[in-house]
DNA sequence: GTCTATATAAAGATAGAC
DNA sequence: GTCTATCTTTATATAGAC
């Protein structure tokens, strides 16, 4: 264990930045981009506004920094999740753990929604979030293809479309679930995924049957 | 055609309210709840702030009024759409017309997102939006049941789950499509619906086959 | 580097004139 | 009913002390 020592100027600065960003993540999620004041972000991080402005140009820069950090982390997360779980069933199980494990799931979904709105309203930011979504979609697509392979059938539709369906479901379920948790439980999304998997396989088998019938 | 006459006080007041709400719809969609100022809403409706405050208590009341109006309209719209299109294929075609016909589709999805965030942050409002979503889900469910009946099969899963899937897809696709219109076209959602319909029917047929095989 | 004090601007909301 | 003028609050951002 390394001997304790004073932080260098750069380390101290980085720590302040980090604490401000963690605080900002919470406040943005709670109040939204406009509703979150620099004062509240700073205070809840244990600093004053002065410290904030010595670390960030303005509120926009902070939000963008948060956006970049989260976007990069998510892209890496989904890719790693898939690499670590080549078996489709494991991948879905890992998805479940990911949602359950994220204690701050509600915070994250609110923040993701703020990101979406911010991206939709800022032409320079939109392509960056779109790229992040495409990257996530790629990971889903590899999972979908692997899953059908494991079941011994060809995907019954373009894998891009199947991946998009999974991704849209993920976002759409989150929206509905957090709005109405009494009706839609944690497991509903996974029930839906299981159902769609069976249905997709059934359709694939059916078209294989049709094809061999036509050949005979 | 009725003779022109002066508007009564009530009619004039109602018209001002209406114009303010239409303006507010655009400004809230563009800037979000906090970003939309009473001044801009009023000016773009052709009034001053004074007129605004003589018609609404404050910004919150206006947003809630808009929320209620839109919520009621949507519930009625989906129900009518289904009543007018008992045939499932017609219902899906009507869905397409609905999206194409709504020139202000982008405005609506931004506003819907603002509603969601607003509801998530206001405990008194959340149940109202949740009720609206449940009502929409009921309409989808009736459509799903009718669709399977028309194909001569029993739904291969609880109809509630199937309806929720359609609804989640609708929201999730809108999110992805407006973020990345270059990748995701207008028709992708309907392609997905068509695919899921075939897949659901294939799964239903498969389980019917399994059942008769077991009986034999 | 961070804090306190302060300048500046923007928005919400009200009051009184017409 | 709506407008203009005004009050009040709140937030961003900066400057200078430590």
Describe the secondary-structure layout.
2 copies of one chain form a homodimer.
Chain A: H1 9-35, H2 38-44, H3 49-55, H4 59-84, H5 88-101, H6 105-121, H7 126-150, H8 159-179, H9 188-215
The structure holds a DNA duplex (18 and 18 nucleotides).
Helix content of chain A: over 70%
Q: Tell me the major beta sheet of chain A.
A: none
User: Cα distance, first to last residue of chain A?
Assistant: 73 Å
Order of helices and strands of chain A: HHHHHHHHH
The 3D shape of chain A can be described as elongated
Based on secondary structure, the structural category of chain A is mainly alpha
What's the pLDDT, averaged over the residues of chain A?
89
What's the total helix number of chain A?
A: 9
Biggest interface between chains? A-B, 51 and 51 residues
Q: What's the count of strands of chain A?
A: 0
Poorly predicted tracts of residues of chain A: none
Strand content of chain A: under 5%
Descriptive report:
The structure is a homodimer of 216-residue chains. By secondary structure, chain A is mainly α. The first copy, chain A, has helices spanning 9-35, 38-44, 49-55, 59-84, 88-101, 105-121, 126-150, 159-179, 188-215. The first copy, chain A, is 80% helix and 0% strand. The longest helix of chain A has 28 residues, at 188-215. The radius of gyration of chain A is 22 Å and the shape is elongated. The mean pLDDT of chain A is 89. Chains A and B meet through α1, α6, α7, α8 and α9 of A and α1, α6, α7, α8 and α9 of B. Chain A binds a DNA duplex (18 and 18 nucleotides) through residues 9, 12-13, 16, 37-39, 47-51, 53-55, 58-59.
């Amino acid at each position: 264990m390394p001997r304790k020592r004073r932080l260098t100027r750069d380390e101290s600065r980085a720590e302040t930045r980090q604490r401000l960003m963690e605080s900002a993540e919470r406040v943005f999620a709670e109040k939204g981009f406009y509703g979150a004041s620099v004062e509240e972000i700073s205070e809840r991080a244990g600093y004053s506004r002065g410290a904030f402005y010595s670390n960030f140009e303005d509120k926009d820069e902070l939000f963008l920094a948060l956006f970049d950090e989260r976007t990069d982390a998510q892209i890496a997360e989904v890719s790693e999740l898939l690499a670590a779980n080549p078996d489709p069933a494991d991948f879905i199980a890992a998805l479940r753990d990911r949602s359950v494990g994220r204690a701050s799931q509600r915070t994250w979904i609110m923040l993701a929604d703020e990101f979406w709105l911010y991206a939709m309203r800022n032409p320079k930011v939109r392509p960056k979030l779109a790229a992040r979504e495409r990257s996530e979609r790629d990971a889903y697509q590899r999972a979908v293809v692997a899953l059908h392979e494991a079941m011994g059938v060809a995907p019954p539709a373009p894998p891009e479309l199947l991946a998009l369906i999974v991704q849209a479901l993920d976002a759409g379920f989150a929206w509905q679930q957090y709005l109405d948790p009494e009706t839609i439980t944690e497991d509903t999304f996974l029930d839906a995924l299981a159902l769609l998997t069976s249905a997709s396989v059934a359709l694939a088998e059916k078209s294989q049957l049709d094809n061999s019938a036509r050949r005979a």
